[in-house]
Structure formats: structure tokens, C-alpha cells
Amino acid sequence: MAHMRLIIFDLDGTLVDSQATIVACTRSGFAAEGLEPPPAQAIRRIIGLSLVKAMEVLLGRSDPVLAARIAEGYRAAFQIRRNDPTLQEPLFPGSRAMLEDLSRRGLIMGVATGKSMRGVHSMLTTHDLGGFFTTLQAADGHPSKPHPSMLIEAMAETGVAPEQTAMIGDTSYDMEMAKAAGVRPIGVDWGNHDRSDLLQAGAVSILSNWQELTPALGLHMAAT
């Protein structure tokens, strides 16, 4: 295995447990258009895609105009929830300690997410994570996952080769994106897609906790 230098993370379902918010806002977006809200299981399947693309997949037909309206309803519901002081979108256990460990090792870190850049900055600010990441790639600057554009741009910004880069995510879209970009695809099993989905999409490792990340990256000793 090549020496890893750049580690890129998905956000929703990988670092942050935001599933309840995404499900509720998606259902609100459909209801605002007078449509039957999709079940939570179906919504989980589209987490990771760019918002309009995700709404179109849930519609089950090509209707970009309606999908865009549903996405606007999603955004409106999201802003209401974002201003709710009781909103809970916690980090998954061990996320901060893992980022601190990789930072001490001198690894470059980045984000590649289906969220908008505004949503990225909001989430990183909420959890005080912004200082860990050198490159941020969001949906409003790229085609939807699994297109490799976000990873290609992250590598260009940091000057790191594909064989020295890993993508960490919870969905098959993350794994397919990683394969398309020629980087190491590593899945996590606490997010929105099942282990079987991640393996089928090309994951070379699937983590059950963050302690398993360092050996998956070829790092065997704790940083001090």
C-alpha cells in the first residue's frame, strides 16, 4: 500500500449523525408539493447524492423542475430545524479523537459531501471541526456523487496523487466515487448504506469504529 497523505471524509452518516434531520426535511419537501412523503428507508438510500438529484431519485422519474421545487421545500424545512436550539446532530463516537490523531500525524484532510458549501461551513462551525480540513468540496461546485469531480479537485488543491489518497464514507456513492478517481475506498458501517452495498461498490475496507481506520490506512502506531 502506498503511503497515505490525503484523507477525505464524507460528512452526513460518516462524521456526523444527521440522518433524522435529512429524513424529516425530505418528507417536508414532498409534503409541501402535495406528494406522499417517501419512507425513511428510501430516504436513507439517497443520502450522499446532491439534493436535487436525490429528490429526483425519490420521485422515481425524470422531472428536474419538480425535483428542484421539492429541494426548495427541503431547504426551507432545514432552515427551520437549523434555528431550533434542541436540534441534535452529534458527531459519531470517536470522530474528534480520530481527526486529532490524523492531524498529529501530519496527514492532510478534506471533505467531499453532497451538502451545499453553506451547509458544510455550518456543520463544521457547529462542531468546531473547520481547523482540521485543508480542502472542502461540496455539491454546489461539482456534479453529484458518484462523479469523481470532488476528489479530483481535492487532489489538485493539495498536490497529492490518487495512490496516496483515501476516501472515507458511508454510502455506495462514496465508494464508487473513490474508485472512479483512483483513490482508496474505505467504508464505515454506522451510516446509511449496508456493508453489502459498500462491498459491492468497491470498498477495500469497512470500519466498525474509528480505531480501525489507522490500520486500514497502513498506520499502525498511535501518534503522540
From TrEMBL:
Origin superkingdom: Bacteria
GO MF term set: phosphoglycolate phosphatase activity
Gene Ontology BP, a term: DNA repair
Protein name in the entry: Phosphoglycolate phosphatase
Pfam families reported for this sequence: HAD_2 (PF13419)
GO CC terms: cytosol
NCBIfam families the UniProt entry points to: HAD-SF-IA-v1
InterPro entries: HAD-like_hydrolase_sf, HAD-like_sf, HAD-SF_hydro_IA, HAD_2, HAD_sf, PGP-like_dom2
